Amino acid sequence: MSARTALITGGTSGIGKATAELLHARGYRVAVTGQGAESVARARAELPDEVLVLQSDVRRLAAIDEAVSEVGQRFGSLTTLFLNAGVSRPMTLETFDEAAYDEVFAVNTKGQFYTLAKALPLLSDGAAVIVTVGIGATRSLTGNSVTAGSHGAFLGMIPTLALELAPRGIRINAVSPGFTDTPMTRASLGRTSSDAAAAMAAIAAKNPFGRLAETEDIARTVAYLASDDAAYVTGQEILVAGGAGLAV
Predict the structure, then answer these.
(1) Total structural domains within the chain
(2) Which of 104, 116, 163, 244 has the least C-beta neighbours within 10 A?
């Protein structure tokens, strides 16, 4: 696998964009997808010209087919698939919203699964699949039950998927960021707090390292899992959270 290629869903901002920049700098041919026209246009302007930026909605199977087909035509095959598309919709039992509930599972669970299934013919033997899950899937956070459940559902699939993919030497692992300074984090906190910046500062102050994760922290972990250094690692979850959740 001398020619390294990567498809990153949810790659037009935040963790996905930082990973695209890092992998491109390391010699990968990179394609990213994003749902919103504005974020796609911004990514096309800000990412290196060689990065293929596609507008795609993982909630729609036809859109996944179109994106995978375009990547196949451009790259031929994939050595890395980073399933990073995700949404967060805070809600409780008292504030639930059916449409938001359905959207969360459509993106975070169904969209991830079907993107992997439809990209599978493009994956080279020995390829790496990395899935963004998040520390919230296994840690308590008020208002996060639906988002946590959607990520936790896919996390529960990973051991079985690892066994299914092993005969071809394909590895699948999860990366679970703690609170990370991204546009999605700011937007999510903005839905539950009148001062998102103050909320982020308070969260950072509680972290053992005294800061939130930067997108580059997560990108470097993804790059490790995509590399030959992780050639014997599969079916695992790596928390990148600065020790969050360790204290009793």
Answers:
(1) 1
(2) 163
| CA distance to 2, 93, 131, 151, per residue, from 7 (Å) | 16, 36, 12, 20
What tokens were used for 3?
């020619």
- φ, ψ at 25 (rounded to 5°): -65, -25
DSSP 26: T
Domain range for residue 117? 5-179+214-240
Rg (CA), the chain: 17
In whole angstroms, give the CA distance from residue 73 to residue 220. Answer: 28
Question: Quick one: which of 104, 63, 64, 68 has its CA closest to 87?
Answer: 104
Q: What is the pTM of this model?
A: 0.92
Amino acid making up residue 169: G
pLDDT computed for residue 81 by the predictor: 98
Query: What's the CA gap between 29 and 214, in Å, rounded?
Result: 23
